C-alpha cells in the first residue's frame, strides 16, 4: 500500500523491468546491421557475381555496384561503410592457381561496426570462393579444416545476453532502492516514531519492509522474464524459470539487507541516492555481467568472491543460457545464501541500534 501511494517509484519499477531492458537489448548491438556496401566489379565473372549476391539483409544492405572513380567520393559522403574491389582476371587467376587479392575499403569512423563488419566480409568471401573452387578442377586443400560451433547463442545475438544482464542489474538496483527508501520515507514523514510506540521490535519493522518489497521484485522479475525477455525479445530460456526465481529469492536476502543498511546510514533521501549510485556501480562492474571475472586482476577476483552479485550472475547465466539444473548451480546458491544471511543479520543489528538511539 505504501508503494502504491508513490506513483513515481511505481513508474520507475515498471520502466526498469520493461522499457529499460528493451532499450538496452535492442539499442546497443555488437552485430553489424544494415551496413552499406558497394562493389567495384572489374572482373564481371560468375564468381564475382556470386560474391556480390552473397551479401543481403539484415547484416548488410543490398550491395551497390559502382565505378572505381565513385569509391572515394561515396565514402567521403558517408554513402558506403564498405567498398569491396574485385580486380580484373580474378576468377581466371584463382582457377589457374595464381595468387590474387581483393581490396576492402572501410569507413572506420564507426569503429565497432567497421571491425566486426570486416570480419563478416572476409568470412563470406572466403567461404564463397572456396565453394566455387570446389566446383572446378582446381583442388585447393587447407592443412586443417577448422569447424566452429557456437553453443547457447549460435547467431551471437547481443540482445540475448544484454537483456538478461539488465534484469540481473535491475534486481540489485531496485531491491536496494525500495527497501532503503521505505525506511527513509518512514523517518522523513515521522511515521517511524509512531511504529516505535507499538509493540513491535526493530526486527519486525525492518522485516516488513524487506518481505513486502522483495515480493514486488519477484513479481516484476517473473513478469519481465515472461513478457519482455521471452515474448518481446524472443530470448529462449534453456533452464527452469522456477529455479531462477528461487535463486532470486536467495539473492534478495543480500540486496534487501544492503538497502536496509544504506537506509540506516543515510539521514536523507539525497544521501541515500548517492550511496546507492556508489554501491551499485561497484557491484555491477565487478559482478561479471559487464566484463568477465577472468578479465579482472587476480587480487580483485579474490575480493569479488565475497560479492553475492558475482555468484548471482554466474548461476543466472548458467540456468538461462546453458539449462543448468540444481546439481550444477548449488555451490553458487549456497554461497549467495551464506553471504546474504550474514549481511542480513548485520543490517538488522545496525537497524536495531539506530532504533534504540531513536527511542
Keywords:
359 residues, mainly alpha, abc type-2 transporter like fold, 2 domains, four-stranded mixed sheet, 14 helices, 4% strand, elongated
Question: Would you give an account of this structure?
Answer:
The chain contains 14 helices and four strands. Helix 1 packs antiparallel against helix 7 and helix 7 runs parallel beside helix 10 (241-265). The protein folds into two domains: 7-27 and 156-358, no CATH class; 37-134, abc type-2 transporter like domain (abc type-2 transporter like fold, 3-Layer(aba) Sandwich). The protein has helices spanning 7-17, 19-27, 46-53, 70-76, 90-95, 111-134, 158-189, 191-196, 202-232, 241-265, 269-285, 298-304, 308-322, 326-358, and strands spanning 37-41, 64-65, 82-86, 103-106. 64% of the residues lie in helices and 4% in strands. The longest helix has 33 residues, at 326-358. The radius of gyration is 28 Å and the shape is elongated.
Summarize the structure.
The protein has helices spanning 7-17, 19-27, 46-53, 70-76, 90-95, 111-134, 158-189, 191-196, 202-232, 241-265, 269-285, 298-304, 308-322, 326-358, and strands at residues 37-41, 64-65, 82-86, 103-106. The chain has 359 residues and is mainly alpha-helical. The longest helix has 33 residues, at 326-358.
Main sheet: strands, sense, barrel? 4 strands, mixed
Question: What quaternary form is this?
Answer: single chain
Q: How many strands appear in the DSSP assignment?
A: 4
The proportion of strand residues reads under 5%
Amino acid at each position: 500500500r505504501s508503494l502504491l501511494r508513490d506513483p513515481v517509484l511505481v513508474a520507475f519499477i515498471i520502466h526498469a523491468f520493461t522499457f529499460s531492458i528493451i532499450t538496452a537489448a535492442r539499442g546497443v548491438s555488437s552485430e553489424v546491421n544494415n551496413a552499406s556496401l558497394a562493389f567495384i566489379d572489374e572482373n564481371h565473372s560468375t564468381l564475382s557475381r556470386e560474391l556480390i549476391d552473397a551479401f543481403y539483409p539484415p547484416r548488410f544492405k543490398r550491395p551497390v555496384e559502382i565505378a572505381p572513380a565513385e569509391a572515394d567520393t561515396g565514402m567521403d559522403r558517408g554513402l558506403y561503410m564498405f567498398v569491396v574491389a574485385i580486380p580484373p582476371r580474378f576468377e581466371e587467376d584463382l582457377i589457374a592457381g595464381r595468387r590474387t587479392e581483393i581490396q576492402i575499403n572501410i569507413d572506420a569512423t564507426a569503429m565497432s561496426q567497421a571491425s566486426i563488419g570486416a570480419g563478416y566480409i572476409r568470412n563470406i568471401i572466403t567461404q564463397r570462393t572456396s565453394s566455387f573452387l570446389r566446383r572446378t578442377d582446381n583442388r585447393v586443400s587447407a592443412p586443417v579444416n577448422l569447424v566452429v560451433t557456437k553453443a547457447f547463442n549460435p547467431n551471437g545475438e547481443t540482445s540475448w545476453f544484454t537483456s538478461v544482464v539488465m534484469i540481473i542489474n535491475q534486481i540489485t538496483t531496485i531491491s536496494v532502492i525500495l527497501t532503503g527508501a521505505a525506511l527513509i520515507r518512514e523517518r522523513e514523514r515521522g511515521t517511524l516514531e509512531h511504529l516505535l510506540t507499538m509493540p513491535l521490535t526493530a526486527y519486525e519493522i525492518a522485516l516488513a519492509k524487506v518481505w513486502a518489497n522483495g515480493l514486488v521484485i519477484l513479481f516484476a522479475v517473473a513478469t519481465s522474464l515472461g513478457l519482455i525477455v521471452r515474448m518481446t525479445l524472443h530470448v529462449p530460456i534453456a533452464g527452469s524459470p522456477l529455479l531462477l526465481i528461487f535463486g532470486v529469492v536467495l539473492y534478495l536476502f543480500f540486496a534487501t539487507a544492503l538497502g536496509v543498511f544504506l537506509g540506516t546510514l543515510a539521514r536523507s533521501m539525497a544521501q541515500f541516492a548517492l550511496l546507492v549510485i556508489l554501491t551499485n556501480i561497484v557491484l555491477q562492474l565487478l559482478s561479471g555481467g559487464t566484463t568477465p571475472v577472468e578479465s579482472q586482476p587476480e587480487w580483485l577476483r579474490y575480493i569479488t568472491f565475497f560479492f553475492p552479485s558475482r555468484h548471482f550472475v554466474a548461476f543466472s547465466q548458467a540456468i538461462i543460457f546453458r539449462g543448468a539444473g540444481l546439481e550444477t548451480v548449488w555451490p553458487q546458491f549456497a554461497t549467495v545464501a551464506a553471504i546474504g544471511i550474514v549481511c542480513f543479520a548485520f543490517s538488522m543489528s545496525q537497524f536495531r541500534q539506530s532504533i534504540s538511539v531513536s527511542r
